[in-house]
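MODEL INPUT / OUTPUT PAIR
PAIR INDEX: 1
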Amino acid sequence: MRVTTKLLTGVTALGLAATTMTACSSNAKKPVGQFKTLTGNTTTVVLDPAFVAALGTLKLTPGTFGTAKIQSTGGNTDAVFPITGGNAKIYKKGDVTPYVQGEVDHAGSGLTLASGGTTVTIKDFVIHPGNNSNLTGEVDVTAGGKTTVAAKSLKLFDLDGNTLQTPTISSDGVATLQGTTIYLSAEAAKALNGVFKTNALAGGQKVKIGTAIIKATGK
């Protein structure tokens, strides 16, 4: 009898669990856009004028690496990086937190900062949206004709998603995420200060790099 009672209790518990799981599943929010694989388009960073001016003051000359471009648009200076992969889920704001999830890859492109005979290359950016969103990348240092890898995956920038405008998806499947504010991370500031022998760079919402515009397609 005791065995039968325990068995019935276990079956009842499993039934309740299954019912609960079904209810949760039926109430789960669905993304308004989902890309299992990102296949193209670009991330554009509209550089903050104060940041560009600060580079001049520090005698750091910016440049591009690989397929990246720096261009002038409407009086702004833009850095453009082709999207080479990743994935994304975009939910209606308020349905889930974070409402943008996934990663955005930019292999083969990046930026350089040069001073004297030293050049720092930051490249192969990966954007990690969502809570505590950030951008990581590889850091190479060239000095005296020799290039060394300083970091394979360093957090370069902090991303403030509070300034992100409502994402849109066009009729031809292009997702646009515009307005995220980009700040130099504490880790990157420390690394750059060490290489260029200065203490002028600070991280964490003290050095605004610019504003991001992501346009991505996928399947």
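PAIR INDEX: 2
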Amino acid sequence: MSSTTSTTSTQVTEQLGTGLRVRHLTMMGLGSAVGAGLFLGAGAGIGLAGPAILVSYVVAGVLVVLVMRMLAEMAAALPSSGSFSTYADAGIGRWAGFTLGWLYWATLVLVLGVEITGASQIVQGWFPAVPQWVVALLLVVAFAVVNLSGVRSFGEFEFWFASIKVAVIVLFLVIGALLVLGLLPGTDPVGTSNLLGHGGFAPQGVGGIASGLLVVVFAFGGIEIITIAAAESQDPRRSIAAAARSVVWRILLFYVGSVAVMVLVLPWDAPELVAGPFVAVLGLTGIPALPLVMEVVVVVALLSAFNANVYGTSRMAFSLAQRGDGPRALTHVSRSGVPSAAVWVSIACGLVSVLLNWLLPDQLLTILLSAAGASLILVWLFIAVAQIRLRPRLERDGTLSIRMWGYPYLSWATLALLVGFMVLMLTDDEARGQLAAAVGLCAVLAGVYAARSGVRRARARRTGAALVDTGQRPD
């Protein structure tokens, strides 16, 4: 293994706090992934594909399970706050680690805007006299305080914050099952009338399923944060193994189960289902307080995801800076073991989203949701290539504690699925633009790396020549 990777892992462990436990990592993964994609994206997906959106979620879910298994294999062998950026660095090349790290950072910055915009829109509805940008500003400031506390305190806060929404999603699944079976007062069994009526299971055909897939794959983004956070746990290798096994299956259950309830109890083309699926379903119970409670839970879910993603952006920036791929100032760590400079940069980006809330509050959510999806696919593509290239080295080093199933066949199949998904994006006008923007950003980042490397080589040559002229030996 390259010395860069091993050194980075050691530095991260020595400088950052190590107070996170498996339960913290698990809830961070759930907290980051179960957010805007489920609560705000499910309705859009149902509107595109009808009940067949279930197929889209299953396909996307299988894909993310495979990608996470590949990532967990590398992370358990080489725990690092740089996670997949570090593995791309070691398995593909220094340019790939630089490009992937900053691409992911930029993607999470966009997601920060999604989370805070969605939450502030709902909260502003409760307090109409307060401008939406003021609500967003107050929320960003509050989570700055949380993220600048010690990592153990942060982990504990995120654990309980994410636990609230997990408990409510479980409750939603239970209530949904009772509605489906007609076991609540005033309800009858729904059967398959909504699932197969109103144009059938796939009213928009295969094209609808494909369009739905382009929307819902974004929903699973964020789960990879557990491999970033594991470097700050007391036993990274064991923590990654335990958290990765539990998180992916829970998220798949939450997503597929919740959407199944939605399309079973309401017609897929019902306006209220497309606009707010969770509130629409709970409204069928006849309990007046439930829809409002669900709104509160949606806000908690979005803020939990925002909190976890501030963590993710700060740790990725910290790791990049440690490897010389970012400003050295971002490596500053506070006495409580927090990369405070990197956290402040993330918070500043959150404040930029507050400004955008003020400038275009209605359009921002749609813009940001669209922009982040394609970058996520490219991140997963890098992960797959890095795992395929690193696996032989990890086997030789004897560091594997988690193994990708069916290697190398499933690894190559995962890579093929990701390439196929990108081809699918080319068939859709909007997705094609998103993919082009993401690929363009990758090209710009790779170009920045190439230019920076060229400047460094030229400077090294000049320095070496100057030392020779003065009779000194270069280090």
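PAIR 2 NOTE: Residues 1-14, 470-475 have pLDDT under 50 and may be disordered.
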